[in-house]
Specification:
274 residues, Rossmann fold, 7 strands
C-alpha cells in the first residue's frame, strides 16, 4: 500500500511517524525545507511531487488549504483521500459538488497539543485516541474499512461514525467553544501578576488559550451556526450565575452549582461507558 501525507505539521507529521512505527513508510508533501527535514529524520520516504500513484492520501492541512488541495490535485482512480480537518460539512459539500475519481472519507483525529508544527509531532500522539469518521450515502464502505485498519495500527483506540453535520455540531461544543472560553479567560486584567496564586484549575483553563488565530477563525467561520448556538447557550448560563451573584442570592447560586455538579456526574458516567 502506497501512502502519502499532505501537510507535515503536528497532525500530519505525527501521522507519518505513527505509520512508520506501524511498518509503513509514507511519502510526504509540505514546504521544501519541512519535507527535506522529514526525509532526513526518516519520518517519510520521499517528498511527493505527484499524488496519482498513491493508494491512500491523508490531507493534514488547514481547512481552506485542504479544500484547494483536494479540489485541485490529480489522485489515482479509486484512491482513498481522507482529510483530518476540524470541520467536515464544508469539505464534504465541496467534494460532492462534482463526480470524483477518488474515494473521499472525512476523518478527524481526536488528538493534539497546545503547540503546532512538525517539530512537535510524535509517533504516539494518537495512542488511545478516537478517530471520527464521517459518512454519507456516497462513502465507500471498503475505503472506510481500509482506513480503520490503518488507524488501529497507528494507535487509535476506537472509531466513531457520524454524519458531517453531527460532527460539526458536536465539535462546536467539545472543541471550538472550549478554545473560545480559554482564549477569552486570559483577557482578564487579573491574569497579570498571578505568580504564586495558580493551581491546576488555572492551568486547565488556560492550556489552550494560545490558539492560532488564522486557523481557528476559519474553523469558526466554517462552522458558524453551531459555534454561535453553543456560545449563546454558554453566555445564557453565565448570566444566570452573574444575576445570582449580583443579587447576593446564595440559594440560587447553590442551585446553579448543584445543577452543574450533577451534569458533570453524567458526563463522567458517559466517558466510562465509551
Amino acid at each position: 500500500m502506497k501512502i502519502a501525507v499532505a501537510g507535515l505539521g503536528l497532525i500530519g507529521g505525527s501521522a507519518a511517524k505513527a505509520l512508520r512505527r506501524a511498518g509503513y513508510i509514507a511519502d510526504g508533501w509540505d514546504r521544501e525545507e519541512i519535507a527535506a527535514r522529514a526525509v532526513r529524520d526518516g519520518c517519510i520516504g520521499a517528498a511527493v511531487q505527484d499524488f496519482s500513484g498513491y493508494d491512500v492520501v491523508f490531507v493534514a492541512l488547514p481547512p481552506d488549504a485542504a479544500m484547494r488541495f483536494i479540489d485541485g490535485t490529480s489522485f489515482g482512480r479509486g484512491a482513498i483521500v481522507a482529510d483530518f480537518c476540524g470541520v467536515k460539512g464544508a469539505i464534504e459539500e465541496l467534494v460532492g459538488s462534482r463526480v470524483r475519481a477518488f474515494r473521499y472519507v472525512g476523518c478527524h483525529p481526536m488528538a493534539g497539543k497546545e503547540v503546532s508544527g512538525y517539530e512537535n509531532s510524535c509517533e504516539d500522539l494518537f495512542d488511545g485516541a478516537s478517530m471520527i469518521v464521517t459518512r454519507n450515502e456516497r462513502t465507500d464502505p471498503d475505503a472506510v474499512r481500509s482506513l480503520e485498519e490503518l488507524y488501529a495500527k497507528m494507535g487509535f483506540a476506537g472509531i466513531v461514525h457520524c454524519s458531517a453535520r453531527e460532527h460539526d455540531r458536536r465539535i462546536a461544543y467539545t472543541s471550538q467553544l472550549a478554545h473560545i472560553v480559554s482564549n477569552a479567560y486570559v483577557k482578564s486584567p487579573s491574569a497579570q501578576g498571578f505568580s504564586g496564586f495558580t493551581g491546576g484549575s488555572f492551568q486547565d483553563m488556560t492550556r489552550i488559550a494560545g490558539v492560532d488565530e488564522l486557523l481557528w477563525s476559519r474553523l469558526y467561520m466554517l462552522n458558524l451556526s453551531a459555534v454561535t448556538d453553543e456560545l449563546s447557550t454558554l453566555v445564557a448560563h453565565l448570566n444566570e450565575y452573574l444575576r445570582a451573584l449580583r443579587a447576593g442570592d446564595e440559594a440560587a447560586l447553590r442551585e446553579l452549582l448543584r445543577e452543574g455538579r450533577e451534569c458533570k456526574v453524567v458526563l463522567d458516567r458517559e466517558k466510562k461507558i465509551l
